[in-house]
Amino acid sequence: MKEFWSSVASLLGVLAFCQSILHAVFPPELRFAVLKLFKRLFSSSSYYCYFDITEIDGVNTNELYNAVQLYLSSSASSVAGSRLTLTRALNSSSTTFGLSNNDSLVDTFHGVAVVWEHVVSQRQSQSFSWRPLPEEKRGFTLRLRKKDKHFILNSYLDFIIDRANEIRRKNQERFLYTNSRGGSLDSRGHPWESVPFKHPSTFDTLAMDPAMKTEIMEDLRDFSNGQAFYQKTGRAWKRGYLLYGPPGTGKSSMIAAMANFLGYDVYDLELTEVHTNSELRKLLMKTSSKSIIVIEDIDCSINLGNRKKTSSSAGGGSAPPNEMRGGAGEDGANSITLSGLLNFTDGLWSCCGSERIFVFTTNHIEKLDPALLRSGRMDMHVFMSYCTFPALKILLQNYLGFVDSDMELKSPVMEEIEAVIEKARMTPADISEVLIKNRRHKEKAMNELLEALRTETRKKEKNSTEVEDEEQEKRALENPKQNCDDGEEFEEKSWKKESSAEEDDEDREKLN
After folding, report:
1. What one-character-per-residue DSSP string does 166-196 give?
2. Does 132 have pLDDT greater than 60?
3. Is 211 exposed, middle or buried (0-12, 13-18, 19+ CB in 10 A)?
4. Cα distances (Å, whole numbers) of residue 413 to 280, 424, 454
5. What residues does 134 pair with on adjacent strands?
6. CB distance 373 to 306 below 8 Å
7. Rounded CA separation 360/294 (Å)
């Protein structure tokens, strides 16, 4: 045993002597060149190529590293990995998967398998720096076959970035904005004030015709995925929706459902707080992409009435210049013109951002100027009607917990409701109020709903009869002269007949 250790010691001494000779004979540059040559020989014989993505590029954060980390955290739960980290933020309802330190994960893109490795090492001690770096040096290493490098590398990285942006948009907190009073700016110099957008409305809970609902969802989906289409056709990436109908038919709930469906922010524009067209353009410039710009009750905000009706009521003359303004006067009221609003929705300034949706709502579409309603400004007109039976089924599911089997069993109450709901012309808001009061008692809720529908039907029938009688009275009052002329003409004809009869009798007497 003693001889063995003496042999090992002598061998180590020989190796140390040889190393000192190599360092003395071969300079560092030569050793580096030899090592580089060996690496090239090894890489030329290897089937793989490697790409390093570091967390920090110089002094700036590498956005590609953040995108890869977010992408892998979303796919780690479904992709096989030997070790995963689980994190859950405070007040969060979802668990995030991540790749552990110095562990690897296999991903597949277009049928090509790639390997990601999360490399974490201790950073060497650094001297004084104005911006100290983290103690750990983090990065991802991508390994793929050389033959697949030109095939998927660029497209795969673009896919990761797009996927990461989509995940950020879904996970990020969305906001509801409104323009500041009088055009004032906040502490950051922005003209918009915001609160978190927490509206729970979705297309699943929206009470409207299912066919129309599906059409709107498909149109929104085509718009959000249509960047290439809009670029190819030379159109600004925007779309306009006009929601019109009686009050209480769900126009505001539709806007919230659209925002939740797309994951967009909402900008609620109050036109009465905007003074000039220039201020309106500045508000548009400060809106972000992937947003919905809303003007509710546009017919009540400012005077943008139908110019044709205005000119005809004025005796065929042209409308005065202030007729299209918002009541500008000496008191400093707003002076937005119809032209300014049209340029806001469809002019050159409307394309200063991308992926925007304009939504106007009104209770009286006939009051709006046709120039505001044409395609290119309001591309899709959505009539929010009174509650129909298919929409009532959705309300019953929401408030009373009905399932499809409950509504397929045609009870006498359900059959009568189906027969009378079209005549009652009740809004979803009115029906929801009846259901929410009795949401714990289904039978009572259905009976009260039926009674409410009957009452509204009788009111509508009575009103329609009164309206017909009033119209008949108006027609009679509008044509009194014609009735009198008809009577005089009848009396004149009768007198002529009598006089001709008397003359005939006199002629007969003379002949006799």
Report:
1. HHHHHHSPPEEEEEPGGG---TTS-SEEEEE
2. no
3. exposed
4. 53, 15, 12
5. none
6. no
7. 6
How do beta strands 265-268 and 175-179 pair? parallel
The predicted structure's pLDDT at residue 483: 52
Exposed, middle or buried: residue 53 (CB in 10 Å: 0-12, 13-18, 19+)? buried
Beta bridge partners of 52: 141
> What are 474-493's pLDDT values in tens digits?
777 776 555 555 555 545 55
Q: In sequence order, which residues have a C-beta less than 8 Å from that of residue 454 and are 6 or more positions away?
A: 420, 424
Three-state DSSP state, 127: coil
The 10s digit of each residue's pLDDT in 189-239 is: 678 988 999 899 999 999 999 999 999 999 999 999 898 999 899 888 999
Q: What is the predicted pLDDT for the residue at 330? A: 41
Distance CA 284, CA 341 (A): 11
What does the pLDDT look like over 341-384, one tens digit per residue?
888 888 777 777 788 999 999 999 998 888 888 888 899 999 99
CB contact at 8 A, 385 and 424: no
- What the block records as the tokens of 158 is 């673009």
pLDDT band at 318 (very low <50, low <70, confident <90, very high): very low
310 token code pair: 């205005």
Name which of 384, 381, 387 is nearest 368 in CA terms.
381
Beta carbons within 8 Å of 378's beta carbon, 6+ residues apart: 240, 241, 242, 345, 358, 360, 372
Instruction: Please tell me what DSSP assigns to residue 351.
Output: G
DSSP state of 237: S
Position 51 pLDDT exceeds 50 = yes
Handedness of CA 420, 424, 428, 431 (dihedral sign): negative
Q: What is the largest CA-CA distance in the chain?
A: 183
pLDDT given for residue 21 in this prediction: 79
For residues 375 and 353, give the distance between their C-alpha atoms in angstroms, rounded to a whole number. Answer: 20
One-letter amino acid at 456 equals: E
Distance CA 153, CA 160 (A): 11
pLDDT, residue 97, reads 66
pLDDT of residue 28: 74
Average pLDDT of the chain to the nearest whole number: 79
The CA-based dihedral angle spanning residues 340, 344, 346, 352, taken in that order and rounded to the nearest 10 degrees: 140
Q: Please determine, for residue 409, whether its predicted confidence score (pLDDT) is greater than 90.
A: no
What is the identity of the amino acid at 427?
T
Q: Cα 105 from chain centroid?
A: 35
The residue among 139, 135, 123 whose CA lies nearest residue 68 is: 139
Token reading at 110: 């277009």
Q: Which amino acid is at 65?
A: Y
**Structure token digits, residue 140:** 């991802």
Q: Given this model, what pLDDT does residue 490 score? A: 47
As a 3-state breakdown, the chain gives helix, strand, coil percent values, each rounded to 5, of: 55, 15, 30
8 A C-beta contact, residue 156 and residue 142? no
Q: Is-contact 240 233, C-beta < 8 A? A: no
Q: What tokens does 136 get?
A: 């750990």
